[in-house]
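Supplementary Text 2. Reproducibility record for the structural model of the 96-residue chain.

All settings were left at their defaults, and a single model was retained for analysis rather than an ensemble. We include the record here because the model underlies the residue-level annotations in Supplementary Table 4.
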Amino acid sequence: RSLSRRLFKLLLWFVAGSVLLVLLFRWVPPPGTMLMVERKVESWIDGDPIDLKRSWRPWKELPDDLKIAVIAAEDQKFAEHWGFDVPAIRAALAHN
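Retained model, structure tokens:
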């Protein structure tokens, strides 16, 4: 019983932390992306350090075509579901 209670508390902390990060990054630009982390680690492994640079732009400054291209690259069925592509999730679970 104690183990299940601890796991439940851990799950609650994880959910709360995720919600807080989403809320924070709604208004504050994130310090980086996972792709940036991947490239930085690769540069350390290769022994050729790189300096990552980024220039954040407000959403309103971005061209509409760019916004659509990013959404389409991430999820081509974005307009057809409410945040979760359940058939794709099921197919991924079956495949993996």
